[in-house]
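Repro case for the chain-ordering regression, as requested:
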Amino acid sequence: MIEIQGIFEDLKSSDWWDRKNAIEKLLAHPEDSYLPVLAEWLRNHDDALLRNASMETYRALGIRAVDSLSSLLRDDDAEVRLFAANVLGDIGHAAAVSSLVKAVNDPDANVRIASAEALGKIRDENALDALGRTLDDEPWVAMAGIQAIGDIGGEKALVLLYACLDLEEYRGFVISAIAAAGNRGSIKYLTPFIENPAHVFHSELALEAIIRIAERESIRLKSENFKELVPMLLAAVSSPDADTRKPAFIALCWSGDARGIPYFIKAIRDEEFAEYAIDGLLSTGIKAAPALVEALRDSEGDHRVLLAKVLSMLGENRALIEFTKDENPGVRTEVAQALGSVNSSDSVRALLKMLSDPFEEVRLAARKSLSALKKGKVIK
Amino acid sequence: MTDIKDSYISEGEFQLLRELIKKEFGLQIKGDKRLTLHARLAHRLHILGLTSYADYCNFVRADSSGAELQELASHVTNNETFFFREKAQFDIFSHVLEDIKKEKQKKKRQDLKILSLACSTGEEAYTLNILVQLSGLFLWNWDVRITGIDISRIAVEKAKKAIYSKNSFRGINGESGQIQKYFTCEGELYRLKQPFAKNVEFRLGNIMCEDAYAGLEGADAVFCRNLFIYMSPDAIGKVLVNCYRSLSDTGYLFVGSSESLINKTDLFIPRLVNGVIVYRKNVKKN
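-- result from build under test --
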C-alpha cells in the first residue's frame, strides 16, 4: 500500500513522462486497490491535473476499468458521467455497450452526446437501435447519434442512414456519415444530391462523399456521372477549401472533359494528384497533346518526365522529337523510348545522336529503340 | 477506365510492385497509383527488354548486385524539394546552433556534425551549410561536416554537382539578392558558390539500414523531413532507431512540420522552440 501511495504522488506530476511511468507501475498492481481513488479524483472539481491523471490511468487499464467506469455512468455528478462516457469510448471495449446505451437516455444532454460518441468509437451494431432513437432528441444529440451510426458502419447502419437522408435539417450530417460508412451501393443514394443546384452545400458534401467512397472501394466512376457537372467542378477546383477542391478535381479528371486540361497539367506536379491528372489527360485523349507539348516547352521540374510519358501514352510520340536535347535526362529517356515507334528518317537520326548522350539511361533507351526499328517492331 | 489502367499494369502486378517498394524502401503507396508508376518505370522495362511488371519484379529480386533496386529507388522516390523549404524550422536551427556551440565548448570539442536524411538533390543539406556559415559560430579550426543520404543514385549524383534550376529556389525571395549571394548564374542554371558547398558530402544509402550511417555517430542535428508521411510504421520505427543511434545525447531531430512523433515513439521527447516542435533524445532510453 505504501508503494501505491508513492505511485499516486508520481501520478500527480505535471510531467507527462513521469505520469506515464507511474501508470505503468500502477498497472502491475490489482486494480481493486486503487479504483476507488481514481473515482474520487474524477469527482474532484478543483484539480484538473488529478482528473487528467485519473482518466489517463482508466484508459491505460482498458477492459480492467470498464465495470468501474460503467458504474460511474450512474454517478450523481453529471461531469463524472460525462468523463466516464468519454473514457469508455476511448477504451473501445464492447463490454461497455449496454451501460452506454442506457446513458444515451441520461437527463444531461452532454452525457447523452458523449455516450453516443463513445458508442460510435466502440463500433458495436447492438447500439444502432438506441442511436436511431437519438433522432427524436435535441439536435446536438441527434447529430452525435448520426455520426456514431456512420462510425459503426455496416449494412444495418447504412439502411438507417439512407432513411435519414429525407431529414433536411440533418442531411449534411447524414451525408458525412455515409461518407464514413458507405460502400459501392451507397453511391446511388448520394448521386441525386450532387445534381441539385438549389442545395450547393449538400451538393459539395455529396460529391465529397461519393469520391471518398469511390477511392476507398477502388472504384473509378464513369465520365457520364460527371458530364453535366463540369461547370460546377471547374468552379470548385479553384475553391480555397481543400475539402471542396480535392473531390471536385478528381471528378473533373474522371469526367475527361477537355476544359480540365490546364488543371490536369498543373496537378501532375503534385504527388497526391498526379495519378488522377494522368487519368484525366488520358481520358481527354489527343485533345490534350498541344497543351502537353506547350507545358513541356515552358515549365521546369521533374514532373516534365510525366508530361512526356503521357504524350507517349496518348500515342503522340512524334511530337516528342523536339525534346531530344531537353535538359532533363528523364525527358530525354522518354523521348528515346517513344521514338522507337516512330519509323522515320528524322527519328532514326535523332536516336543515333542520342547514342552519345551523357546519360546512360538515354543511351540504353535509344539503343533499344533503334534495334526495335531495325526489326520492324512497334514499341507501345 | 479501369481497363486503361489494366492495359499498362494489372492489379496483380501493381500489388507485386507495391509490396516490393514497401519492403525495400519502407515507402507506402496509398491508393491505385498504377498510371504514375507506369509513367515512372516503363522505360526500365524497355531498356531491360522486359514485357511485364511481374517480370520486372522478378528481375529486381534476382539481381544480386542490387543495381536494378537502385534504379527502382531512383524512379519511385519523390525528389521534390527546394532551398529553405519550411523556413520556420531553419530559423529554429539557426537558433539552436548557439546552444550546440555552447555544448561543444563545454566538451572542448570543435566539430559539428549534421545529417540530412532522404536528402534528395541536396537542397536541404546545402541550406543547412549556408546557415552554419552565416551564423559565424563555427569558423577557425572547426570541423564542420554535413552529410546527405539518399537512396536515389540520380538524386545523389545531382546533389554532388550543386547545380540547380530556378525550380529549386521557391523558398528564396528572388528580389532579395539571396540567389546571387549564394549562387553563380550559368545560363539558366545556378551553381552553388564554393564556400557554401564545402563541408557537404553525399552518400548513397537506405536510411532504414544501419550501414547507411556508418561513421556518422554523434551527430548534433538530424533532419528527416517530409519522409515519414510516405513511410510504413515499421519503416518509420527503423529510421527513428537509426536517428537515435546517430544523434549525440544533446542532439536535435527535425521532422517535417506536418509530421509528429508524439505517440509513435518514446525515443524522442518533443520540445517547443519558438512555436516549432523539435525533438530531443530521450536519454533515459540509452
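Ordering looks correct now. Chain A touches chain B at residues 17, 215, 218, 220, 222-223, 254, 271, 274-275, 278-279, 282-283, 300-302, 305-306, 309-310, 313, 327, 329, 333-334, 337, 340, 361, 364-365, 368-369, 379 (CB under 8 Å).
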